[in-house]
Amino acid sequence: MLTLLKLLKDGKFHSGQDLGAALGISRSAVWKQLQQLQGELNLAIHKVRGRGYQLSAPLELLDPALIEAQAAVSPSWPVTVLDTIDSTNAEALRLLAGGRQAPFLLLAERQTAGRGRRGRTWVSPFGENLYYSLLLRIEGGMRQVEGLSLVVGLAVVNTLRELGVVKAGLKWPNDILAEQRKLAGILLELVGDPADVCHVVIGIGINVNMQSTEEVDQQWTSMRLQSGAPVDRNHLAALLSAKLQVYLERHRREGFAAIQPEWEHNHLWQGRQVALIAGAKQIEGKVLGIDRQGALRLEVQGREQVFSGGELSLRLRDDS
Fold first, then answer.
1. What are the structural domain ranges in the chain?
2. Known catalytic residue: 224?
3. Which of 115, 117, 233, 243 is catalytic?
4. CATH second-level architecture of 2-55?
5. 6 catalytic, yes or no?
6. Of 15, 64, 136, 158, whose CA is between 20 and 30 Å from 251?
7. Catalytic annotation on 115?
């Protein structure tokens, strides 16, 4: 089925006869595969008598060789592109458990069970966005992952801005927003011995060319909606890898404290009145910044308090 999609990706008309000849199947079998493409991948395909079949818009598919060549990451992060997977993070952990050696990078055209923080679903339509999971080996214990998700956020923000999304900024702890709408998210998963050698999966989801969906339960935007033009996902993946390498090396060499001021400078809610939600509990205060481990510093009733943890959620106060 995906071989057929690759024949149609140029957005031009292709006759059923030509498609059948290229695939070695009958015209009726071509039609059945086209129906599957429409149903499973939610792709719009036009059928015009005498001209054939055409995707409603050209489709750019991810190309691992192109990404590796453009990224120029050293040491190399081998790139694998999956057509469809439940979650790139989950697959990275399965491959690690099966003996695959780090580092490696997984990308997918579509996720059927993409995950965000706090158990949320990450909507993952085919061929529109970037679903990116980098698995790394970490030596030296938990100190090496202090503030790591925030460092990754800086790499993502700088990538987006370089590609024309000038309003992109950070929201503690792991979100990237533009005009108060979610543009990208980060999910880190750690396995192994936190006191010695462990592995971390850096999962990044970016809304790239998505222009409409009814499945998202919060305000969202995409690179295309922000910039007004389609984005080359291969170039995006390559540039993100290059930026990540720079920030990860700086974090390894200097620690998070050296990067803390840059993160605070890019935090959209710095100095704002917020509500911090932890389960059924809500704490209101003013964002002072973050500490040297990446925890949130809030002024609560005139006193500074520090908060960290994966189950916390930050919201702007209505009067902020």
1. 2-55, 64-264, 269-316
2. no
3. 117
4. Orthogonal Bundle (1.10)
5. no
6. 64
7. no
CATH number of this structure's domain 269-316, picked from the four choices 3.10.129.10, 3.40.50.300, 2.30.30.100, 1.10.10.60:
2.30.30.100
Q: Which of 107-121, 147-161, 267-281, 298-312 has the highest mean pLDDT?
A: 147-161
Q: Span 64-264: which CATH code?
A: 3.30.930.10
Least confident of 126-130, 194-198, 216-220, 248-252: 216-220
- Three-state SS annotation for the chain: CHHHHHHHCCCCCECHHHHHHHHCCCHHHHHHHHHHHHHHHCCCEEEECCCEEEECCCCCCCCHHHHHHHHCCCCCCCEEEEEEECCHHHHHHHHHHCCCCCCEEEEEEEECCCECHHHCECCCCCCCCEEEEEEEEEECCHHHHCCHHHHHHHHHHHHHHHCCCCCEEEECCCEEEECCEEEEEEEEEEEECCCCEEEEEEEEEECCCCCCCCCCCCCECCHHHHHCCCCCHHHHHHHHHHHHHHHHHHHHHHCHHHCHHHHHHCECCCCCEEEEEECCEEEEEEEEEECCCCCEEEEECCEEEEECCCCEEEEECCCC
Catalytic entry in 182, 224, 243, 286: 182
Domain 64-264 matches domain 269-316 at the CATH topology level: no
